[in-house]
Amino acid sequence: xxxxxxxxxxxxxxxxxxxxxxxxxxxxxxxxxxxxxxxxxxxxxxxxxxxxxxxxxxxxxxxxxxxxxxxxxxxxxxxxxxxxxxxxxxxxxxxxxxxxxxxxxxxxxxxxxxxxxxxxxxxxxxxxxxxxxxxxxxxxxxxxxxxxxxxxxxxxxxxxxxxxxxxxxxxxxxxxxxxxxxxxxxxxxxxxxxxxxxxxxxxxxxxxxxxxxxxxxxxxxxxxxxxxxxxxxxxxxxxxxxxxxxxxxxxxxxxxxxxxxxxxxxxxxxxxxxxxxxxxxxxxxxxxxxxxxxxxxxxxxxxxxxxxxxxxxxxxxxxxxxxxxxxxxxxxxxxxxxxxxxxxxxxxxxxx
Amino acid sequence: xxxxxxxxxxxxxxxxxxxxxxxxxxxxxxxxxxxxxxxxxxxxxxxxxxxxxxxxxxxxxxxxxxxxxxxxxxxxxxxxxxxxxxxxxxxxxxxxxxxxxxxxxxxxxxxxxxxxxxxxxxxxxxxxxxxxxxxxxxxxxxxxxxxxxxxxxxxxxxxxxxxxxxxxxxxxxxxxxxxxxxxxxxxxxxxxxxxxxxxxxxxxxxxxxxxxxxxxxxxxxxxxxxxxxxxxxxxxxxxxxxxxxxxxxxxxxxxxxxxxxxxxxxxxxxxxxxxxxxxxxxxxxxxxxxxxxxxxxxxxxxxxxxxxxxxxxxxxxxxxxxxxxxxxxxxxxxxxxxxxxxxxxxxxxxxx
Amino acid sequence: xxxxxxxxxxxxxxxxxxxxxxxxxxxxxxxxxxxxxxxxxxxxxxxxxxxxxxxxxxxxxxxxxxxxxxxxxxxxxxxxxxxxxxxxxxxxxxxxxxxxxxxxxxxxxxxxxxxxxxxxxxxxxxxxxxxxxxxxxxxxxxxxxxxxxxxxxxxxxxxxxxxxxxxxxxxxxxxxxxxxxxxxxxxxxxxxxxxxxxxxxxxxxxxxxxxxxxxxxxxxxxxxxxxxxxxxxxxxxxxxxxxxxxxxxxxxxxxxxxxxxxxxxxxxxxxxxxxxxxxxxxxxxxxxxxxxxxxxxxxxxxxxxxxxxxxxxxxxxxxxxxxxxxxxxxxxxxxxxxxxxxxxxxxxxxxx
Amino acid sequence: xxxxxxxxxxxxxxxxxxxxxxxxxxxxxxxxxxxxxxxxxxxxxxxxxxxxxxxxxxxxxxxxxxxxxxxxxxxxxxxxxxxxxxxxxxxxxxxxxxxxxxxxxxxxxxxxxxxxxxxxxxxxxxxxxxxxxxxxxxxxxxxxxxxxxxxxxxxxxxxxxxxxxxxxxxxxxxxxxxxxxxxxxxxxxxxxxxxxxxxxxxxxxxxxxxxxxxxxxxxxxxxxxxxxxxxxxxxxxxxxxxxxxxxxxxxxxxxxxxxxxxxxxxxxxxxxxxxxxxxxxxxxxxxxxxxxxxxxxxxxxxxxxxxxxxxxxxxxxxxxxxxxxxxxxxxxxxxxxxxxxxxxxxxxxxxx
Lengths: 352, 352, 352, 352
What we know:
Four copies of one chain form a homotetramer.
Chain A: E1 3-8, H1 13-22, E2 28-34, H2 43-46, E3 71-74, H3 80-90, E4 94-97, H4 107-114, H5 121-126, E5 128-130, H6 132-147, E6 153-156, H7 159-173, E7 182-188, H8 203-206, E8 211-212, H9 220-228, E9 234-240, E10 247-254, H10 262-272, E11 279-281, E12 299-306, E13 311-318, H11 322-336
Parallel strand pairs in A: 1-2, 1-3, 3-4, 4-6, 5-6, 7-9, 11-12
Antiparallel strand pairs in A: 7-10, 8-9, 10-13, 12-13
């Protein structure tokens, strides 16, 4: 018997990619895709890649059969999830939230960076962080609770935190990090700026351009620090580059006294991700390419020991809308529903 | 029991996309991917999108277990298929050829445009043309013969012929075409120029550039004329644009005396492709977008009646490496093996 | 003594490129750049390519010293020029209009295609069409009148008409055109869609995509027909491709009875443009590339005789915002001011 | 009287951009552009952006009138400049070298990173480093010597060192740098990989892709360390992104004990570059965009004080082939010839 699912905010880039992942998912049945703005329009009218692939139409939030859903994906702006999650969970649905509302464990940190009150701290306390490779047991615990009839909540990791943390976590969890700032310079494709037409997303301004943005102020900073346990030490600088899908994070980790060789580092990383279907470690000098994972839920990581300055330079490539948002959400949904986490997520990127 | 398949010339853009389509195909088992140049290298070393997806390595042609294959895909330059198909078929394999060697029914036309002798005219006579939506019964006849133990041969349509013919065929087969030249101006992404690194495929020369090429001399001209039955009337001008995957053909068809309305034209096209899973007709003023079909075996077509000059402007969008090559080859293979033609080919393009 | 000039609608893509051409122009002094929306903002704040290049700020239309201008460039939507040109000319300024308001000689044709009344038919009757290579003597006649104190008006050619007409005019004016439709399939970069942020100009929708638009309905149709004298015979289909600047038009001209060889055609074209600094004819099989003219006022054209279908395929490449708009406007302004037409317009495109 | 100049290695991306800068330069007369590979071909045949702009042809090195040149630009691979500079200077020419051969002051460092002997250490000792904004007096000293008849030598800064150093130098020279690694993550367009057609420069591999390369091993590391005086402390990671021209370097500088505010930092940077025509400091939260300087010799920089981790994040945007190579070389040539350094270099980037 299929598991009924709905997507709230289905018309945005993350939401519609959840829809794409759900069409053809062998266990989930998509019964609602909401968009107040586009209510009544067939999905294929708005996104013509779906022509011939689905008859589903967007529905207004209030008209959607969300209370018949077993799982609801929230692909909404922050604060909207704060408002919607409690209602959905009361109706019995588990919630996989792609917004920032249930990521930061400390409401005070949320309130500091997002400048808004956290109005669902009780749910936050019981939510799991949705980055399975680093917090799988928390998600499995939710699966256990859900199997006993309790609606559960996942706050999925953001795109920059996913790539940055997958790149840095093996070294940091192994205790290799010394003193000083951790520098994460990350570059994202334009889809990261969202579907809204703005000067930033205008082709003629984004094309043939590179720029940093949100320098020192990007809200993914505390999220990365929380994941990696490096509070107050992260210098995170996001950049925009002229491509659609793709995110590369380059993390420079100052080493402590521990000596390490490149081959030990390779082994450490390979061992760390040995059981993760979606994360591959590149060794032998190969570097992750975002094109290798575009359109998928995969991540490629590498770590290079740099003796010159006694640091590790770790890199992680993902599709910001895939593993950085929609793919990860479906992966988390798979886990909390007791399914193999790869269910419906096995696509391979275009070769070149 | 799975059907054993091999890919000859698996390292090129068309070959590797056949490989991508075959990994995960539920009925075909890929047992050989040849590349004399890259023999011994694991596929994932050469194309890192396959990291974690396959352990297969390229093999030299002579070392590949091609005689154990039920079906062999030839993704080789023209003339190479002439040399290889007879041997493969003698060993019992059916052949799906992506090259130009078995497309043109008249060897004299082949020899005129390709400036080389056709050395397998007996096979050519028995081959079917691989464009299922327009010649499905020929392919089904091959399925019948193959089911009786006879190795069969498909000469798959080229990329420009596929998009151009899918756009123009419904109008032409309905007898709407009047006198005068048929003009097909088509634009392709750079992958159409192949994997070889040249000035044409150099990023800095292809980026931010549009140009026509092969004006009046492109070898797809006689192929399109054969498909559409418009010998000597086609003006085909291909162009290059700065994208990876995608091909759009715009065909201007002079009308005869028959009167037609836009709604009749829409109905004609919708009816023509009513039973084709991979071809969708856009109506209501919508125009095909190559991004809607990138990475897939789908085609989008539209036809506009232009009273101002009494012509039809028909447009067709495909992924030149997908429906224009590898996807189509797998679709043909499905048919000659008696499988549903959509088997393993149901992916949906990235929304935006 | 410098010639004082102003730009109305300076914040759009065409207007700001006029500004770029005027800064550093040795004879024109830019004293006003209007934008009601951005009034008060320094140009460099809005377009950071001007940082350190000009201190000029946008002014509101009503605050701009337009009545002190010798020449005013109108880079405004159609109908706005209808409203503004009379006032400006009464104040003594000559007007170079980049909009469509003064291009079509027959007001009835204007009203048919633009669905609005032409309210300045007296000015229209005296205006010259701004495409110097094909109508230079008309512009020189304006220069004569202006030198005698009469404000004059130029209606500059549109982007598609410029590329299409430069490609086709030599053959048509030589009487080579036979019967039947003339097909112009043209491809433009996204800057042609303007500065406004829309789904069409969103990076993620334009990137990796090709599509036709305005099929059978584009308003440049009658303009091209007027320039080439082929009323009712043009099939014009514009397309969008993923680049910023660049426009390529491919024109298929059915031949009449006149015999022609490729070398005669090359000579015809070279002779036609022998005295035009901005138009270069490519021969020997070379095809125009938009990247060769990006950022400049140049045009590259070629013509290929196709014996197969007895047609000429003529191609023309321009920068749609350069020779297709702003560069051409400055070239026209140079002419009506009695300056060498190349003044301030000699830049060379980036090599690759 | 014009100054005669030649370009050795004129067919590569840096060389041909020097040629573009020299055509139309009011003081330099280009009399030789060498390319052994393309000798005899007219420049416009190879780079069609020059059609109609120059009649010059490439000449073989040995046939070029280099001994008639006052200044020779060497746009050759490293070691080739070592071989050629001595001969040219003996013939009386001053040399502006774009290669790496005369950048590193300590031959041992050169030999360590380039794995080849430095065979012209006497010239190296007398050469100036070609980054005028940071070492202008050294170049002016060369101008003085040259004016007395002595051939002089400039070793121009590399592309990454230029952007990185312009961004970081004001803070470092002001003594703000504390302990710990300096992290420079820089992203370059594909033109930085050179004209050679390779898999790296293939459109289909570079398009829609981000990747790091040369992690820990890039040869610009010691050059940046030398410029900034931070030997052994730099972690430099270059990246490739899908654009033609453009380079952005993001430098994270750990602060020492000195307190600083954002406004003090802005003032420090503005004051530092107050007299530099080509470097603009962005303040008020604006970040440098490579599109703002593409095709020019300009640089945009900004510095952000990050109290969270007590660092400065400084960013610098240039055109890697412009200010990062050819433009800078012409700027240096201007200075050593006693010309205003902006001569012939005042172009403005395309607005969008």
